[in-house]
Amino acid sequence: MARNLTIGAAQLGPIQRDHTRADVVERLVGLLHQAAERGVELLVYPELALTTFFPRWFVDDISEADHWYETAMPNADTQPLFDEAKRLGIGFCLGYALLDNGHRWNVQTLVDRSGSIVGTYKKVHIPGHEHHEPDRPFQHAERYYFEPSPEGFPVWQAFGAVVGMMICNDRRWPETYRVMGLQGVELILCGYNTPVHYVPDPSQDALQGFHNALVMQSGAYQNGTWVVGVAKGGVEEGVDSLGQSCIIAPSGQIVAQALSTDDELISARCDLDWCKRYTGTLFDFDRYRRPEMYQRITAQRGVEPTVGG
Ligand code: CDT
């Protein structure tokens, strides 16, 4: 029997600093209703989908930022989303900041069609900087606000598929996809907030869209998996962020892509058995991989030159 899953990517436009959780959840529910009309079974929202991207500001005392974090999921603000999704029989994946026993995580929670939590993924690759950098036009202080996950890249059996998650910067690292690929992943869900202006090297600004597609398309193809990338785009508190949410097939082809940088739903009917055409042939890992040749991948972090220069 064919394993088809209709997946939606609920791109968000900007969330400004003074937008309340209630304002945002109303938008999320609006996109959920559009998704229901299209027969979507799983809807994916962006990274930090409940608030503005607060790591763009620095605070001297981190407890001043506590209000940006959720302390439970669901909670009073998100319960309407959980209730409506359950009523409609739509599962979803939601990105938010979590404050848990003093630990600060950037997470995505996957919820099944009956409203039960399948799992929560914590972001592994935390980009940006730890300290205030006053010369920047805006901060990217994720390394101040979030701990890197010690849990790696688990996968879950859900929606009739093997499902994994990654968050924003994780999508730029091939190891992210491969660790899940080695667990038989068939669907990777990824929310992101990507400022168009990359402060350390502005020559990359014009390439943001290219790099976004490049990493997710190659990760999908090289691991024979569906990838769903969902942006919070547009000008948020003066910072322009990339849209270009997309759904990518195991062939590496983009099957749906957002056209705006605003709230926008895209969707695709995804044949999960398409994965096997790649994982059972060209990327039959068990047959063709040479892990004994890849020891450096886990043995070292930075470059250790092996020749002069
Ligand atoms: N949110 C996130 O991880 N954003 C980064 C921005 C670049 S690093 C400052 C990204 O990889 O898109």
Structure, described:
- With 309 residues, the chain is of the alpha/beta class.
- It has one domain: 4-Layer Sandwich (Nitrilase/N-carbamoyl-D-aminoacid amidohydrolase).
- 23% of the residues lie in helices and 26% in strands.
- It has helices at 21-37, 79-88, 142-145, 174-181, 208-223, 274-279, 285-288, 295-299; strands at residues 4-11, 42-44, 91-100, 103-111, 117-122, 155-158, 161-167, 187-192, 226-231, 234-236, 239-241, 246-248, 254-257, 264-271.
- The strands form 3 sheets. Strands 5-4-3-2-1-14 form a 6-stranded mixed sheet, with helices on one face.
- Strand 8, helix 5 and strand 9 (226-231) form a beta-alpha-beta unit.
- Helix 1 (21-37) packs parallel to helix 2 and helix 4 (174-181) runs parallel beside helix 5.
- The radius of gyration is 19 Å and the shape is globular.
- The model has no long low-confidence stretch (mean pLDDT 98).
- Bound molecules: 4-methylsulfanyl-2-ureido-butyric acid.
- 4-methylsulfanyl-2-ureido-butyric acid binds next to loops.
